[in-house]
Amino acid sequence: xxKNRGRTGRRRRRKHLQSFMDGVNCSHKLEYIKLKKWLKExxxxxxxxxxxxxxxxxxxxxxxxxxQVRDLIISLPEKCLLTTGTVxxxxxxKYIMKWxxxxxxxxxxxxxxxxxxxxxxxxxxxxxxxxLPNTYTCPVSLEHDVVSLLPEPLRKKAQxxxxxxxxxxxxxxxxxSSLQPLFAENTGTIFNYSALEWAxxxxxxxxxxxxxxxxECFSLEPDVYALAPYLDLLxxxxxxxxxxxxxxxxxxxxxxTNSQCKKYEEVFICYGxxxxxxxxxxxxxxxxxxxxxxxxxxxxxxxxYFPPLDKQRNAKLSILKDHDFLENLTFGWDGPSWxxxxxxxxxxxxxxxxxxxxxxxxGDLISARNEQxxxxxxxxxxxxxxxxxQHVLLQIxxxxxxxxxxxxxxxxxxALRLEDLKILQKSAEIxxxxxxxx
Length: 438
Description:
The chain has 17 helices and 13 strands. It is mainly alpha-helical. Among the domains are: about 80-225, Alpha-Beta Complex (set domain protein methyltransferase, domain 1), CATH 3.90.1410; about 295-435, set domain protein methyltransferase, domain 2 (Alpha-Beta Complex). The strands form five sheets. It has a three-stranded antiparallel β-sheet with strand order 1-2-3, with helices on one face. The longest helix has about 35 residues, at about 370-400. It is globular and about 75 Å long. It comes from Balearica regulorum gibbericeps (East African grey crowned-crane). This is SET domain-containing protein 4. Keywords: Cytoplasm, Inflammatory response, Methyltransferase, Nucleus, S-adenosyl-L-methionine, Transferase. It holds the Pfam family Rubis-subs-bind.
């Protein structure tokens, strides 16, 4: 008897461990029970998925049965989607319709989210709002100390994102004030900057693409957003293939899988072939071993290794600029990109080779010396970026010890930089082998 109980205990332990590996079922939590009930009232039934907490991706959806290629993962009826149509049919509609100049579809959705969140218990969308994150990790929400640790091109884009959201807020203040008759409280306190930032992040990170016909009450920006409750719990994985679109026949937004998924495993979709910098900028996360990831080389780094006395230096820079060879220069998992090597080959041209610059841009071999010098400088740039990345990782580990409140945000930048380091080390290895071969 004892022996048997031991085997049962082992089996139970194994089962518990397996459930932890797969993810912890969260469908019993009150907010998910309320969300499923609310969706059911709008015609959504689902037997394939359940909310779960996964140790590596956080909150997501787990398969309740094995999914095969071409299986329908989820079909969300139109009634469940939050679009500009939803906004116009609410009490905000008449204020949007008479406001001039017209607001953008994006501001309409942000205004609706802020107003509904403020309504609390009275909001018809409360079950959905209750499962939305309270905070986001897009660069617009990161502290200045954290943003300064991002790689240079991403740091620039993060600052642009922050400026854009701030300008959006400033240009919408008058419209927000026009909504005062709807609220007992002052609209200035309801529609403040942090409320808009939260709503903007919600729309930016969670909407699905759904084209709507142009309405006169909106500005000319494309109206392509729809918030999809429950469906937006699906996490991204770069190597997963799905087919997603609004089905005009069933009037539902559908996702079909092109990959298999085992029972109790997390179900993933792909947000697009984005590198980690784009994922962090748009969605606030990074993907490990992302095949689309690359490390960007800024033009400042590029020029660090060229003699300032090169008489053709300015002419070379001008050619690179005119032919768009100073942007998107990268190292990837397969080494330096063709664009990076081409830019460097042109910069390495000797005075007597300079007339061949057109052939360089076409990828022709100019001389053995040019090839060798290009490889040497590419390797130097790669090693410089490795050292810079290691230095930033050291700064991050020190900050993590001193700044408890920034730990989550710092971990995100650390994940990005560690991925960069792996790519650069792989590139250094490839360059070393190429050097030995030549």
